User: Fold these one by one.
Assistant:
Number 1:
Amino acid sequence: MILSCSEVRDRFDAYGAEALAAGERRAVREHLGSCEACRAEASASDSLFVFARAGATPVLPEETAGILAAVRTGIAFKKAERRLESPPVRRRMGKLFSAAAAVALTLLVPGAPARRSPPDAPPAEREAARRSFVPAGNSAPAPAGEILEKTGGARKYPADATIYDFSTGAGEPRVVWIVDRSIDI
Amino acid sequence: MELVYSEERHRQEARELPDRELAVQARAGDMLAFEALVLRKTPAVVSVARRIVGNAEDARDVAQMAFLRVWEQLARYDETYSFNTWLYRIATNLAIDFLRSSRSRQKAHTATLHLVRLREEQTGIETSRAAEDDSASRLFDRIAGRLTGKQKAAFVLREMEDLETSEIAVILSCGESTVRNHLFNARRILRKEIERVAPGLAGRSGKKR
C-alpha cells in the first residue's frame, strides 16, 4: 500500500490511537521514513512520532563476538553443572554395578581358576591356576581388604594383575577384585 | 584439514537457513546451528533489551542470559511457532526482570536522586539539557523511566520494533486488550514526560488522549 502525503497526515491520529490496520500502519511508517516534510508534520502533531523512526541500536561485530563467546562459556558451565549434578545417579548406578560384579565374582571365584584355565589343561596346570588366585594357606578366607599379589604359577592371568580379596569371613560369599593393568582403556 | 573445511561449509550453510530450521537443528544438538542463530539474532535482542533496561552494558548481559536460556530450553521449542516470537519472549521477560531487580536495588538511591532532579528542573537545567538532546534513543532512555517494565516492553516492541499487537501479546503472555492498555498508558506517560523535559519537542501534542 502506498499513501500520499495528505493520506498519511490524515492518519496521524488513528496511528497514535492504534486504530490503523496493519497494512495502513506499515504504509504510514514507510512514508515517514522517506518524507522529511511529513516527518516534521507528524512530530508537530504528536511528539511520540519521534520514536517511530528510531531504528535499532547498532551493535558492533565485536559486541556480537563477545556475546557469542560469553554464551559459549555459559553453555560450558551449564554442561559442567549438569555433569556435577549427575553423580548421585552415577553413584547409585555404580553401587548397582558393584553389587552385580560382586555377585558375579562370588559365583565365579570358587570355580574360576578351574574354569579360566583351558578346559583341556592338565590337572597340574589347573591346580597352579587355582593357586594364583588363592594364596597358600588360605583355607580360611583372608581378612577384609587384604591385598593378595599374584603369586605367579601358570600364566593364565596377566602378570601385572593384582587380586584384592574382600571376603569377610567363613561361610560368607567370597568377594574378590581383580585389577588388570595390562588392559589399556 | 577436511574437518576444518567441513565445519566452515556447515557454518556457511547455516547462515542461509531460516530461523526456524536453524532452531530445529540446534534442538537436535547442532552447536553450529545454535551459534548461527546467536550471531543472527544478537543485534535485535540487544536492541530490544537496550530500550528496556536503558543502557548498553546491561543489555549485553540480558542478551547473553537470553541466548543461554534459549539453549537450555531448546527441547521445549515448538517449531510450529515463530522462533523470533519465542526469542523475544525470553529476552523481553529477562529484560523486565532485570529492570525490576535493578529498580529495587536502586530504590534508596533514586529517592535522593529525585530530590536533586526536582531542584535542577526548578532552575531550568534539565529543560535546557533536553533541548540539546536531539537523539530519539537518548530521549527515550531519559523519559521511559516512568514506565513499568511491561509498558516499556510493549511500547518498544510496537513502536520501535514494529511488531503486531497479537505478537506482543504472546511475548508478554497477556491478552491483546492488555497490550493495547499498556500502549495507551505508555503513550500518555511519555507525552507528559516529553512536555516536562523537552517542551520544544512537544509541538501540538499537548492534546490529551
Number 2:
Amino acid sequence: MSKFTIDSEFRGIAGARAYHAALTFVRSIYYLPMICPERDYFKAVDWFDTLSDDDKRKMLKIAIDDGAMLSEDEIHALLLFAKDQNNVPLGKESVKQLSAFEISEVLLDVCCEIFKKKVFFFIKRTSRKDAEIFG
Amino acid sequence: MPKIFQISQGDAGFSYNGVNYTFSDVDTIDYTYNKKNHLTRGASGTNKLGIAYKEGLKTPDAAEVKVVDCSVAIYKLLLTIFNDASRINFWFVDRATGEGFTYKNAAIRDKPRQTTIGESEDTIGFMFAVECFDVTEKLNDE
C-alpha cells in the first residue's frame, strides 16, 4: 500500500505534461518486441488500450524498471500528482527522502492512474487513411 | 538581550506528521541562544566568588529562516501549521562549520510571509520564524 495519494484529475498544463511523460513509458513498450505483440504502431496502440488496468500496470512496470529514461522535469511532472500525508504534492523538498525504488513505485502509480482513461484517444479518431498520410 | 547568530551558507528543513521536507535553497538563518549565566554578590562587594544564577530559562530559543525558490505547497503547509499552532521538528546545518541544530516540537512564531517573487509560478521565497525549548546542538568534531 503506497503512502501517497494519487490524484485522479490531471488538469491544466501540469496534467498535460504528466500525460506526455507517461506516454514515454508506453512508447518504450512498443520498442520492446518481446513484450509488445504488435509491430504496427497503430495496432500496438489499440492493443495497449484494450489491456485491463492490471495488465497495463504490469507492462508499465517493465517499462519503468527496464525501459524508458525520463528527464528530471518529466519525473517531477509525474510526481506532482502524488500527495503525501500532509496533502503536499511530491516536490523537490520531499523527493530527496525517497529511494530510487520508491520513486519508481510512485511513477508507476501515477501512470496507472493516468491510463485508467483512454490513452491514445487522438489516434483513435484518426482514420487509417489519415494515418497512412501522416505515417 | 540575546545574542543573534547568522548563517549565510546553510541547509534547513523540517518534519511534520512523519514527513521530512528539505528546503532546496536557504538564503540566511538567524538564531538566538537565550540562556546565560550571571554572577552577583552583596552590596558590600567583598565576596570574590559570587553567586551564580541563570537568565533566560523561560524564554525559548528562536530561529528565523529566509527560504528561496520553494514550492507554494510547502508555503501553504507552513501557513496551516502556523494557523493551527501545530508543532514541527525544525533543523538547520551551518555548511561552513558542519554544526547542526535541531529544534524539537517547535512552534512557528512568525507567520510565513512572502519576501520575493519566485522564478516560476509554482515557487516563491518567504521567511518564517520558529521558537523552541528543546534545542539540540551537534558540533562537527571531525
